[in-house]
Write a structure and sequence with these properties.
With 229 residues, the protein is an alpha/beta fold. It is built from seven helices and ten strands. Bound molecules: adenosine-5'-triphosphate.
């Protein structure tokens, strides 16, 4: 569960204030024009930016001042989610032990997740030998091994071709249901969620301008202002 109570952030020219909550196991899409504050919102929840005031509660705990590494949150970006000098096995192992020294039980967990993300035969490969989709699978696998129930995604599949992107969304939704993950996902492309009726938060100039399901969003008269199109 995610709760933001009057969370305030200021850049030189842009004020942002967020007030909303997301239930455990909910998938929420974040939309809005460029520069509206979508990435800032994710960074506040992940702890990369400290709010000026307000409270961030995650799974019932006040985490406003908690170090990002200690929050029950993983964040996946468009690119650069894997360490290029580490093998797939080591990238996954990082989710279990920063020292990369795994117990037998952790090895077992890693094998199960590698199988789940379809990378069992790539464990000794390095990221330079993987496709964009495979790299994102490694990153998702590492998030799952960290056992962090909140996943923040900032345009995670936008550099992939349409077919691969569709496959990755399918995998993501399957994993979300299996692990009851709470997901907040920024996207610019409405077609990414056309097959869902996800709850959508639309951010315009640092505030939530719309909060409702995809079908309701499509009925909005000012949808083009909302989406910056
Ligand atoms: N480091 C910074 N210093 C000053 N202003 C910043 C900084 N980072 C972002 N901003 C401003 O804050 C606003 C929100 O930025 P943010 O990256 O959160 O928007 P966004 O909705 O994710 O945009 P995009 O869709 O283009 O990625 C923008 O107006 C941006 O110019």
């Amino acid at each position: 569960m995610i709760e933001l109570n009057q969370v305030l952030y200021l850049y030189d020219k842009q004020r942002m204030i967020f007030n909303f909550s997301v239930q455990q196991g909910e998938v929420v899409t974040i939309l809005g024009p460029s520069g509206a504050g979508k990435s800032t919102l994710l960074s506040l929840i992940a702890g990369f930016l400290p709010p000026l005031s307000g409270q961030i509660r995650l799974n019932g705990e006040d985490e406003t001042d908690t170090n990002p590494a200690k929050r029950p949150v993983s964040m996946l970006f468009q690119d650069n989610n894997v360490f290029t000098h580490l093998s797939v096995q080591q990238n996954l192992a990082l989710g279990l032990a920063p020292s990369l020294k795994l117990t037998a039980a952790q090895h077992e967990q890693l094998s199960i997740i590698a199988e789940r993300i379809g990378l069992t035969s790539y464990l000794s490969a390095y990221p330079s030998q993987l496709s964009g989709g495979q790299k994102q699978r490694v990153a998702i696998g590492r998030c799952l091994l960290q056992h962090r129930p909140i996943l923040l995604l900032d345009e995670p599949f936008s550099s992939l071709d349409p077919k691969l992107k569709k496959e990755m969304f399918e995998l993501l939704y399957e994993i979300q249901a299996e692990y009851r993950l709470t997901i907040l996902m920024v996207t610019h492309q409405l077609e990414d969620i056309a097959a869902t009726n996800n709850r959508c938060l639309v951010i315009v100039e640092g505030e939530i301008a719309f909060d409702g399901h995809y079908q309701q969003l499509l009925e909005q008269k000012n949808i083009s202002t909302y989406l910056g199109i």
